[in-house]
Write a structure and sequence with these properties.
The structure is a homotrimer. Chain A is mostly helical and about 160 residues long. Chain A is built from 4 helices and no strands.
Chain lengths: ~160, ~160, ~160
């Protein structure tokens, strides 16, 4: 089995774990904002009176940008992170140099954290898009590398 | 290669396969409900007259909670299961005890099946949220375990 | 570690890389169509005047089917591809024959490319649904195969 003691595989595991925690954090941040705003809910049954919602109101099902911003960030994660997680695994199995793997994998993590910061604080689209672009290009790079290795095009 | 004959890896493979089948089932359940309700469609071209839609009507593109409930459940799956699938793989590669792996991996599967049951039958938010929370905490636990192992913090 | 030099694992890696590139292409196609339509944006801050959006207008946040069609295709990818990527990995680790793996994995890739073509060009629902169904049945097949192998039900 691949071992977490192997430096190359550990690099992947660290990057993957950080991205998984980032993705999970979006769910918790959505929960936090829904509780703080007492709104941004989505299901009809969420208007029932419960300990977590003692004073239900139909307006709680209305769109709420304070909550929906996190949902947009999360959707962007869903469009990117699962593919990074698999591409990164195959990438380290293609035996790149440790330096190459560190630049690519940690570079991706950094680009996504900066994307999150830009999105959360509603920076201009151009800044947010630049961060997304860096991550996406890294993902494409890793995937093409894997494809070349699997096709036997690399040494 | 990791082998499905290895008890630890087989535990992961069983949990992963069950969660993948669960996720795929949401797609089929959406299809089933769209056909039963003859609505909840999303694309303009779905209003064309075809063998599967002999009597098209513009109302078929309106939101339909009978269908959209499954879509919400599926979205919740997308926010959770891909990360579980990768975290679980790395978790078993970090060589936990078999008992630890079984509790964590099968516990996650159980929490998601209960979340589905609570969501499908429109139980109160608090019950559904509790099931989600158990799964999310297990996911965080596995991911922190992987991170610690990859950073060499565990024996 | 599994090696990309192994023909079985390389088959998986090629199929996975193609599907990851396909998924990433949906993001870029969304960007392309947003820039071409100068609309279909989602965040309030996207109405700020920037080099990429020199003449902002509130209508840019309205739904735009030219853009939203790609988003629907992408959502369909998110509902399917991450599960294929993990199921396919476990499938090749269950040591199927190379022919079996090629038919199943490349068959899936082909079904998704045809689904994309049908969806992009707004073919009738029935054609698009048929392509989706083929891919989904292949995914279920692979997953049941993995489950049987992990449960020790196969030789």
């Amino acid at each position: 089995m691949p071992s977490l003691q192997d430096p190359l595989f550990a690099t992947y595991a660290i990057a993957a774990a950080l991205m998984i925690l980032k993705a999970v954090a979006m769910s918790w941040l959505t929960v936090y904002r829904m509780m703080k705003a007492k709104g941004g809910y989505r299901s009809p049954e969420d208007l029932r009176k419960t300990p977590l919602n003692p004073q239900p109101d139909p307006s709680q099902l209305q769109p709420n940008d304070y909550v929906d911003r996190i949902r947009r960030i999360q959707l962007n994660d869903l469009e990117n992170l699962p593919f990074f997680l698999v591409a990164g695994l195959l990438f380290v199995l293609s035996m790149p140099s440790l330096l190459h793997a560190r630049i690519v994998l940690y570079g991706y993590v950094l680009s996504r954290l900066l994307h999150f910061a830009a999105y959360l604080t509603a920076q201009t689209h151009d800044l947010r898009a630049s961060m997304w672009t860096i991550g996406s290009l890294i993902l494409i790079w890793m995937t093409l590398w894997v494809l070349a290795a699997a096709l036997g095009l690399t040494a």
